[in-house]
Write a structure and sequence with these properties.
Shape: globular
Number of helices: 7
Number of strands: 0
Strand content: under 5%
Oligomer: single chain
Distance between the termini: 16 Å
Largest sheet: none
Radius of gyration: 14 Å
Mean pLDDT: 88
Structural class: mainly alpha
Order of helices and strands: HHHHHHH
Low-confidence stretches: none
Protein backbone atom coordinates (compact mmCIF):
# COMPACT_ATOMS: atom_id res chain seq x y z
CA UNK A 1 0.00 0.00 0.00
CA UNK A 2 2.92 2.30 -0.76
CA UNK A 3 1.65 5.52 -2.20
CA UNK A 4 4.11 7.61 -4.17
CA UNK A 5 4.92 11.04 -2.80
CA UNK A 6 3.20 12.72 -5.75
CA UNK A 7 0.01 10.75 -5.16
CA UNK A 8 0.07 11.56 -1.45
CA UNK A 9 0.59 15.27 -2.10
CA UNK A 10 -2.18 15.39 -4.69
CA UNK A 11 -4.48 13.73 -2.20
CA UNK A 12 -4.04 16.53 0.31
CA UNK A 13 -2.94 19.49 -1.80
CA UNK A 14 -5.50 21.34 -3.88
CA UNK A 15 -4.73 24.48 -5.84
CA UNK A 16 -7.35 26.90 -7.10
CA UNK A 17 -6.49 25.81 -10.65
CA UNK A 18 -7.37 22.23 -9.65
CA UNK A 19 -11.02 23.29 -9.61
CA UNK A 20 -10.96 22.44 -13.32
CA UNK A 21 -10.74 18.78 -12.25
CA UNK A 22 -13.60 18.93 -9.75
CA UNK A 23 -16.95 17.65 -11.07
CA UNK A 24 -19.54 20.35 -11.68
CA UNK A 25 -22.00 18.93 -9.16
CA UNK A 26 -19.39 19.10 -6.37
CA UNK A 27 -18.30 22.59 -7.37
CA UNK A 28 -21.93 23.76 -7.49
CA UNK A 29 -22.54 22.44 -3.97
CA UNK A 30 -19.46 24.24 -2.67
CA UNK A 31 -20.21 27.55 -4.38
CA UNK A 32 -23.94 27.74 -3.66
CA UNK A 33 -23.68 29.04 -0.06
CA UNK A 34 -20.59 31.21 -0.65
CA UNK A 35 -20.67 34.99 -0.77
CA UNK A 36 -20.82 36.21 -4.38
CA UNK A 37 -18.08 38.73 -3.64
CA UNK A 38 -15.78 35.94 -2.42
CA UNK A 39 -16.33 34.01 -5.65
CA UNK A 40 -15.74 37.12 -7.76
CA UNK A 41 -12.51 37.99 -5.94
CA UNK A 42 -11.25 34.42 -6.33
CA UNK A 43 -11.77 34.61 -10.08
CA UNK A 44 -9.89 37.86 -10.66
CA UNK A 45 -6.61 36.09 -11.52
CA UNK A 46 -8.10 32.84 -12.85
CA UNK A 47 -7.72 31.61 -16.41
CA UNK A 48 -10.64 32.28 -18.75
CA UNK A 49 -11.47 28.54 -18.71
CA UNK A 50 -11.58 28.40 -14.93
CA UNK A 51 -13.66 31.58 -14.75
CA UNK A 52 -16.17 30.02 -17.14
CA UNK A 53 -16.32 26.75 -15.19
CA UNK A 54 -16.90 28.52 -11.88
CA UNK A 55 -19.47 30.97 -13.25
CA UNK A 56 -21.32 28.07 -14.87
CA UNK A 57 -21.54 26.42 -11.45
CA UNK A 58 -22.91 29.42 -9.59
CA UNK A 59 -26.70 29.44 -9.33
CA UNK A 60 -28.04 31.02 -12.51
CA UNK A 61 -29.69 33.93 -10.72
CA UNK A 62 -26.28 34.95 -9.29
CA UNK A 63 -24.12 34.62 -12.42
CA UNK A 64 -24.61 38.23 -13.44
CA UNK A 65 -23.93 39.40 -9.89
CA UNK A 66 -20.62 37.52 -9.84
CA UNK A 67 -19.52 38.89 -13.22
CA UNK A 68 -20.55 42.42 -12.18
CA UNK A 69 -18.56 42.05 -8.95
CA UNK A 70 -15.53 40.93 -10.98
CA UNK A 71 -15.65 44.18 -12.94
CA UNK A 72 -16.01 46.40 -9.88
CA UNK A 73 -13.39 44.52 -7.83
CA UNK A 74 -10.65 44.59 -10.46
CA UNK A 75 -8.32 46.63 -8.20
CA UNK A 76 -8.59 44.14 -5.31
CA UNK A 77 -5.32 43.42 -3.49
CA UNK A 78 -3.61 40.17 -4.43
CA UNK A 79 -3.80 38.90 -0.85
CA UNK A 80 -7.60 39.26 -0.88
CA UNK A 81 -7.76 37.29 -4.13
CA UNK A 82 -5.65 34.49 -2.63
CA UNK A 83 -7.71 34.53 0.58
CA UNK A 84 -10.90 34.08 -1.46
CA UNK A 85 -9.35 31.27 -3.50
CA UNK A 86 -8.24 29.53 -0.31
CA UNK A 87 -11.75 29.80 1.12
CA UNK A 88 -13.13 27.89 -1.87
CA UNK A 89 -10.42 25.21 -1.89
CA UNK A 90 -10.74 24.81 1.90
CA UNK A 91 -14.42 23.94 1.52
CA UNK A 92 -13.57 21.26 -1.04
CA UNK A 93 -10.86 19.81 1.23
CA UNK A 94 -13.38 19.79 4.11
CA UNK A 95 -15.72 17.66 1.98
CA UNK A 96 -12.85 15.28 1.29
CA UNK A 97 -11.90 15.06 4.98
CA UNK A 98 -15.52 14.33 5.85
CA UNK A 99 -15.48 11.46 3.34
CA UNK A 100 -18.11 13.07 1.11
CA UNK A 101 -15.85 13.22 -1.96
CA UNK A 102 -12.73 11.40 -3.12
CA UNK A 103 -10.41 14.28 -3.89
CA UNK A 104 -7.55 11.98 -4.93
CA UNK A 105 -9.77 10.42 -7.57
CA UNK A 106 -10.65 13.82 -9.02
CA UNK A 107 -7.08 15.12 -9.02
CA UNK A 108 -5.35 12.02 -10.35
CA UNK A 109 -8.12 10.59 -12.50
CA UNK A 110 -7.82 7.33 -10.52
CA UNK A 111 -10.80 5.05 -10.45
Amino acid sequence: QDMSLAEELSRVYLTFEDLMKIPDRVLSDVLRPMARETIAKALLTATPELKQKVVNNVPERFREVVTDFMETLSDTAAEEVVKSQLEITREIRNLARAGKIDLRKFLTGAE
